[in-house]
C-alpha cells in the first residue's frame, strides 16, 4: 500500500439486497390535531371524542418502505415534509397515529439540536443518562467514558450544564455518545453540520467505518452529501413518499423540483432523457478553440483566499512508534512563510518527521480532503525518490517537500492528512498517520460548481444560424 492511501469506503449497499430487513415501515401515519384557540384544546378534553373542535393535520400519511441491513438510505425533502416525524417514529420517540415500524437492532439517533440531553445536567451526567438509555450498564459506560470524552473533545465543558453549551459542543457530545453505544442502526440529520471541520471529518470517518456493517438513515438537504454517502434515497413531500430509488436519480429529480419551485410557473422544466448517440461531441476536437498561450490570465477573478490553520497538536490519527511527524507547513514556493494563500498560487507543502528506530526507505505523503472526507488531491514522495531512496537513522529528522499550484477550491474547510511510512511500492508500513494536521479555510471563492475549480480562459455567447 502506497501513500496517500485512500481508506476503503464501505460499500455495504452492494450486498444489501440479500441482507435481512433492518427497518420496515408499514402504512405509517401521524396526524396532529390543530386547534384554532387554546380554549378549544381545553374544551376538547371534556368533550373527549363526542365532537371534534380541531382540524386534522397529517404530518405523515401512509408511508411504507424497507431498509436492509447494511444499507445507507437518504431521506430528503423540503422543510416540513415529514422527515423528522418519520425518523422520530423509527426511533420510538413519537407514537404513530396508525401504521407500524419494525426495527431489528439497536437504533441510535442524532436528531435536531435539543433532543436527547437534559439541559440542567452536566455533559458527563448526560453521557451516563443517554448511554444507559441505549442499554449500556454503568460499568460499560465507565469503561467507554474516556473514549466518548476524547471523541467529543470539549475539555472542561464536560462538567458544565449542557444548557451552557454552544450548538457545536452539544452536537460533539451527542455524536460521541451515539458513536459508542454499539448501535446497529444510526440516524443522522443535518445537526451534524454545526460541527467544525475537524469534528465533521471525525464524524464522517466514523460514519464511513460504520457503513461497512451498520444501517444508516441520513437526512440532508445537501445533495452532494447524499450522493457521496448513499446509494438509495427516499424523497418525502407533504407527508408522502414522492419518489424512492437510486440516490442519483432521486437527487436529480428533487433538484429539478426545487429549481421549478424557484422558477415558478413562468418556466416549466422537463427532464431530459439522453437520445442514443448523444454522447458524441457535436464538434470535432480539432475544431474547438485551443489557446496556445502558456500563461493566459483568467477572464474572471476566481481568486479565493485560503487561510491556514496548524492543527498538528490536536490532529486525530494513530502511530506505530517507529517514526513521528513533527511539523507540517504550507508556505510560498520559495519557502517564505504565509498564512493566507490564493487558489492558483504556487506553494510548498512540507512535512517533517523524526525516525525513532531508523527507516530504510522513508515515505512522506499528504492528502487534501473536503468536509465530507472526500479525497481531492494528494501525493507522496515515493514516485519521485524511488531511484535514490535515503535511509534515516534513529533520532534523525527528515523532511518531504511538495511544490505545486494550489487548486481553486469552493468555499469551506478542508483538512490535510499527512503520513509517514517505510518501504516501497509493494511493501510498506505506515508509522504515523494524522487525519487533519492542517486545516485550510477557503473564503471568497467564486467557484460554484464541483469539488475543484478551474480558471476558464474563454467563455462566449453568440447566435448561430
Ligand atoms: N407537534 C406538532 N403539532 C402540529 N404539527 C406538527 C407538530 N410537529 C410537526 N408538525 C408539522 O408536521 C410537519 C412535518 O414536520 P417535520 O418536522 O417532520 O418536517 P421536516 O421534514 O423534518 O422539516 P425540516 O426539514 O424543517 O426539519 C410540519 O408541517 C410541521 O409543522
Automatic annotation (TrEMBL):
<dbReference type="GO" id="GO:0005524">
    <property type="term" value="F:ATP binding"/>
</dbReference>
<keyword id="KW-0472">Membrane</keyword>
<comment type="similarity">
    <text>Belongs to the ABC transporter superfamily.</text>
</comment>
<dbReference type="InterPro" id="IPR015860">
    <property type="entry name" value="ABC_transpr_TagH-like"/>
</dbReference>
<keyword id="KW-0813">Transport</keyword>
<keyword id="KW-0547">Nucleotide-binding</keyword>
<dbReference type="Pfam" id="PF14524">
    <property type="entry name" value="Wzt_C"/>
</dbReference>
<protein>
    <submittedName>
        <fullName>ABC transporter ATP-binding protein</fullName>
    </submittedName>
</protein>
<dbReference type="InterPro" id="IPR050683">
    <property type="entry name" value="Bact_Polysacc_Export_ATP-bd"/>
</dbReference>
<keyword id="KW-0067">ATP-binding</keyword>
<dbReference type="InterPro" id="IPR029439">
    <property type="entry name" value="Wzt_C"/>
</dbReference>
<feature type="domain" description="ABC transporter">
    <location>
        <begin position="23"/>
        <end position="263"/>
    </location>
</feature>
<dbReference type="Pfam" id="PF00005">
    <property type="entry name" value="ABC_tran"/>
</dbReference>
<keyword id="KW-1003">Cell membrane</keyword>
<dbReference type="InterPro" id="IPR003593">
    <property type="entry name" value="AAA+_ATPase"/>
</dbReference>
<dbReference type="InterPro" id="IPR003439">
    <property type="entry name" value="ABC_transporter-like_ATP-bd"/>
</dbReference>
Amino acid at each position: 500500500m502506497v501513500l496517500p492511501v485512500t481508506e476503503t469506503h464501505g460499500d455495504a449497499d452492494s450486498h444489501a439486497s440479500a441482507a435481512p430487513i433492518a427497518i420496515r415501515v408499514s402504512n405509517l401515519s401521524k396526524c396532529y390535531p390543530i386547534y384554532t384557540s387554546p380554549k378549544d384544546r381545553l374544551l376538547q378534553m371534556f368533550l373527549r371524542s363526542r365532537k371534534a373542535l380541531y382540524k386534522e393535520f397529517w404530518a405523515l400519511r401512509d408511508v411504507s418502505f424497507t431498509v436492509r441491513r447494511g444499507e445507507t438510505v437518504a431521506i430528503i425533502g423540503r422543510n416540513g415534509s415529514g422527515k423528522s416525524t418519520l425518523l422520530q417514529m423509527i426511533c420510538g420517540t413519537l407514537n404513530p397515529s396508525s401504521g407500524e415500524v419494525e426495527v431489528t437492532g439497536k437504533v441510535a439517533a442524532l436528531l435536531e439540536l435539543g433532543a436527547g440531553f437534559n439541559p440542567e445536567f452536566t455533559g458527563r451526567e448526560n453521557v451516563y443518562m443517554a448511554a444507559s438509555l441505549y442499554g449500556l450498564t454503568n460499568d460499560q459506560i465507565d469503561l467507554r467514558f474516556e473514549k466518548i470524552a476524547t471523541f467529543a473533545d470539549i475539555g472542561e465543558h464536560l462538567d458544565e450544564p449542557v444548557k451552557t453549551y454552544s450548538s457545536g459542543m452539544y452536537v460533539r457530545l451527542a455524536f460521541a455518545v451515539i458513536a459508542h453505544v454499539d448501535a446497529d442502526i444510526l440516524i443522522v440529520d443535518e445537526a451534524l453540520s454545526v460541527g467544525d471541520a475537524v469534528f465533521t471529518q471525525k464524524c464522517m470517518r466514523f460514519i464511513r467505518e460504520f457503513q461497512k456493517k451498520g444501517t444508516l438513515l441520513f437526512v440532508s438537504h445537501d445533495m452532494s452529501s447524499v450522493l457521496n454517502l448513499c446509494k438509495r434515497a427516499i424523497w418525502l413531500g407533504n407527508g408522502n413518499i414522492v419518489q424512492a430509488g437510486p440516490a442519483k436519480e432521486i437527487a436529480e429529480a428533487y433538484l429539478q423540483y426545487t429549481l421549478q419551485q424557484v422558477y415558478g410557473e413562468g418556466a416549466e422544466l422537463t427532464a431530459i432523457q439522453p437520445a442514443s448517440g448523444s454522447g458524441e461531441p457535436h464538434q470535432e476536437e480539432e475544431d474547438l478553440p485551443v489557446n496556445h498561450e502558456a500563461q493566459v490570465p483568467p477572464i474572471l477573478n476566481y481568486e479565493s483566499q485560503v487561510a491556514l490553520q496548524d492543527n498538528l497538536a490536536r490532529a486525530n490519527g494513530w502511530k506505530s512508534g517507529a517514526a513521528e511527524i513533527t511539523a507540517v507547513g504550507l508556505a510560498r514556493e520559495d519557502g517564505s512563510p504565509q498564512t493566507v494563500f490564493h487558489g492558483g498560487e504556487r506553494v510548498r507543502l512540507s512535512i517533517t518527521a523524526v525516525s525513532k528506530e531508523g527507516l530504510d526507505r522513508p515515505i512522506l505523503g499528504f492528502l487534501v480532503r473536503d468536509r465530507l472526507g472526500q479525497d481531492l488531491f494528494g501525493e507522496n514522495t515515493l514516485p519521485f525518490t524511488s531511484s535514490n531512496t535515503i535511509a534515516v537513522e534513529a533520532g534523525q529528522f527528515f523532511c518531504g517537500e511538495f511544490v505545486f499550484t494550489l487548486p481553486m477550491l469552493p468555499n469551506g474547510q478542508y483538512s490535510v492528512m499527512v503520513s509517514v511510512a517505510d518501504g516501497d511500492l509493494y511493501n510498506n508500513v505506515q508509522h504515523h498517520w494524522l487525519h487533519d494536521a492542517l486545516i485550510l479555510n477557503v473564503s471568497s471563492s467564486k467557484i460554484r460548481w464541483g469539488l475543484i475549480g478551474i480558471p476558464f480562459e474563454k467563455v462566449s455567447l453568440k447566435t448561430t444560424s
